[in-house]
Amino acid sequence: MTREEPPAPVRRGRGRRPAAQVRAEVLDAAGRILLEDGMAAFTMERVAAVSGASKVTLYKWWPSKGALALDGYRHAVEHRLEFDDTGDIEADLRTQVRSFVEVLRGPAGRAVAELIGQAQTDPELAAAFREVYSGPRRALAVDAVTRARERGQIRADVDPETVVDQLWGAGYHRLLIPDQPLTEDFADALIRHLLPGIESRPDERG
Amino acid sequence: MTREEPPAPVRRGRGRRPAAQVRAEVLDAAGRILLEDGMAAFTMERVAAVSGASKVTLYKWWPSKGALALDGYRHAVEHRLEFDDTGDIEADLRTQVRSFVEVLRGPAGRAVAELIGQAQTDPELAAAFREVYSGPRRALAVDAVTRARERGQIRADVDPETVVDQLWGAGYHRLLIPDQPLTEDFADALIRHLLPGIESRPDERG
């Protein structure tokens, strides 16, 4: 330890924080900066300054600014987008799609629109988006629909991946090409239109 | 007329072209440049050079590069995206959604993804996108669904705007967040899932 470069925790007088706590504080800071000021204001320097972690630490855990922004976004919205599994797929989908549309309508919607926008010409960010965010979230929804199919609530010929595009994807469409507003009526219409074509008829249920 | 600055048509030895022809040639050039080389290579200079129109002419008709790129895109894809009206809404939607997914899979998909991406941080391009492209195209689809509702083929409680998000919007979702591929099976699953929830039951038809 030299006077020129003391370790960050000592310099800040906060004592050494456990890695899990540092990680959580970095994600908090990243999510807050992204949602409050957008991608233009999002830099590794700023996340380091707000969280009290060093840039070396940030780069050890997140290979790029985009990866950290995405992880911060996921961290900021995941508690609002938890997937219920009450056994009633229609109710669970309605709850989830309403929450999702509500999230898109706020600052998180603006942030994720910028991330998706930038990903169209930034292959590294696009790969990080799929790996850190959209892939895992898609899997949660696909799992829920697949379980409902196994319970006999969803028809055997339904493709769970396509259901994701027709509920959540429809929401992203209104976010990214805002010809029409993201309202609760819209969320409910998504469910009302889709459910009759994917639910089993009573005589098909196990 | 001076030797220093002869009017472009004379210099190019093509004679004066009627405005409608110039316009069509500009749109051809704009569409081709966009689909072949993407937005990074798309400049007013290049469209002027390829089409033989002057930059002054381009700016007279299109206020910005984005507006011209979008109009070129519309011009390039519109003949492949004509909306049939055979009186059978299910068949018409299937034909249209298959063509749309096919267009998205090719170079036009890459081009429109870049335009939508850039529109997320460029409010002028976003406004042009809605005015020149997505608004008019959405209206065509909404009109088709509304006519089918008036014929009694689509249920009275269906929201035609939301149908657009669940068919075309679902396609844009796979284009912009490519977790899953844009295939004909996907197009067919979109129709198969949605139609039972929006079509009138036989006893409801007029």
Word description of this protein:
2 copies of one chain form a homodimer. Chain A is mainly alpha-helical. The first copy, chain A, has a domain at about 80-205: Tetracycline Repressor, domain 2, CATH 1.10.357.10. Chain A contains 10 helices and no strands. Chain A has helices at about 10, 20-35, 45-50, 55-60, 65-75, 90-105, 105-120, 125-150, 160-175, 185-200. In chain A, helix 2 (about 20-35) crosses helix 5 (about 65-75) and helix 6 packs antiparallel against helix 10. The longest helix of chain A has 28 residues, at about 125-150. Chain A starts with 7 loop residues before the first helix and ends in an 8-residue tail after the last helix. Mean pLDDT of chain A is about 90; it is low at about 1-10. The interface between A and B is large, with 47 and 47 residues.
